[in-house]
Amino acid sequence: MKKRIFSHLSLFLSVLFVAVSVLTALPTATQAATKSITWENRSTTMQVSSSTTRTSLTNIGKTSGKWYWEVTVDNTEGMYAGIGISNANKTYTTNYYGNDGHRLDNFAITNAENRGYVYGSTYKKGDIISVALDIDNSTITWYKNGVSQTPVQYSSKEITTPIYAEIMAVNSSPQLTGNFGLTPFKYAIPNGYSPYSEDEILIGKSTLKATAGNAKVDLTWSTATNATSYNVKRATTTGGPYTNVATNVTGNTYYTDTTPVNGTPYFYVVTGVNGTTEGAVSNEVTATPIAAVKPNEQATLDVTIDKEKVKVGEGFIADLSLKKATNIYAEDFVVNYDATLMEYLGATEVPGYKVYNETNDKKGTLRFIVASQGKNYGISADTVFLKLKFKAIAVGTGKVDSLSGRIADTDNEYDIAPANALEDTILIEKPAFLDVNRSGSYTLLDLSIDAFYFGQNAADTDKTLHDADQTEDDQVGDDDLVYIVGQMLTNPDYTPNK
């Protein structure tokens, strides 16, 4: 009996031990996981030498985010150290040099351009040099004993990710100790930065869409992996620079920017954020907010001529129509035409629309007042409501132009904007020949003139006044008179035909 109890108790304790071990191994939701960061000698303390191991990197690099660490100068020769960052294969670096306080780029790297800049104070044994690296904005700030030596920009084209913390011997054999966050830092971490030892959170990219409105832009985006909030950024030129218009957007993946100015193009991106880590920018979208258009404010009075070209003496029709209109029941408008090239023959009403006033100054300007015949004829689509008849009387490019207009629904009147009062043109060509006396219409007078020239050669006729050779055979004869009579019989303006 005692053996069985002891056996059960042992089994229970074993299970409990495993469970506690597993739970202890899991990182909590409120504390970031950390890694043991060392130099290349697998220790946080290392002596580098200008004659042997000149540089040393950390065993883990960073690809994005803001990171902080501290380096203590351990020996007198530490003043000859360079403390900074490097790319993975040490081909590009930037360091803060203790002996003269200069910033050194690519020092002692054979395949890169060496550069030196006046930067900060000198440092020596016992000093603590802190480093604040902002990969997302390509900036680095060194601190000497907690005092900032000012931020600087590094070349992200040279020092590409992953980026590693680095120590370097410019001269002699400096010894340095790194604190990457597994023990308390000597100085406060700058706002927004994380200890270098924390696991890097890889945040995905969102896909962004934009819709412009009246003094606003609506933005929506897809969820970014590992993002707990989002920053919305805006620029007025493509590619940036961007400034935040919203930060810490949580609980949704949409945002409305209500600060834009109508008519200005804006360029947007969004980034996912987790703690102090901000992910890469999304695709860039552009949007130009515009003022809301009220009904009928963009209405257009259009003119459409039914032919592209005619010959002198031929007729054509110009259709008048309303476009981009809503529930319009009355129109008052003015039309101009080139009276030297065309003759106005009258207007033809379209069923459902009646002309209640027509004014003709006989010099090329017409005014019409038109009204719909019932609620079923309110204009809410592209609608032809009147047809104007013309006859070409001279050679040239003729124009029918809607000069101005006013329209009305059952609540308000609206003036047609000058840019929306449209026109159309027609090419008027000289025919192979006109009627004999060039009046533009075949009548008995044309027959009489040709009868006078009957039997003569075309060269003997008075060509300055008459086109007697109608059939163009160099003589005036029966064929010409027969042709003229045929044109007379089909001429609707010849009085005996009416």
UniProtKB/TrEMBL annotation:
SUPFAM superfamilies tied to this protein: Carbohydrate-binding domain, Concanavalin A-like lectins/glucanases, Fibronectin type III
Question: Which residues belong to any copy of the B30.2/SPRY domain?
Answer: 1-185
Concerning InterPro entries, the annotation shows: B30.2/SPRY (IPR001870), B30.2/SPRY_sf (IPR043136), CBM2/CBM3_carb-bd_dom_sf (IPR008965), Cohesin_dom (IPR002102), ConA-like_dom_sf (IPR013320), FN3_dom (IPR003961), FN3_sf (IPR036116), Ig-like_fold (IPR013783)
Q: What are the UniProt keywords, alphabetically?
A: Coiled coil, Metal-binding, Signal, Zinc, Zinc-finger
**PROSITE patterns, per this entry?**
B302_SPRY (PS50188)
**CDD domains for the chain:** FN3 (cd00063), Type_II_cohesin (cd08547)
- Give the signal peptide, or none: 1-32
**What name does this protein carry?**
Cohesin domain-containing protein
What organism is the protein native to?
A: Paenibacillus nicotianae
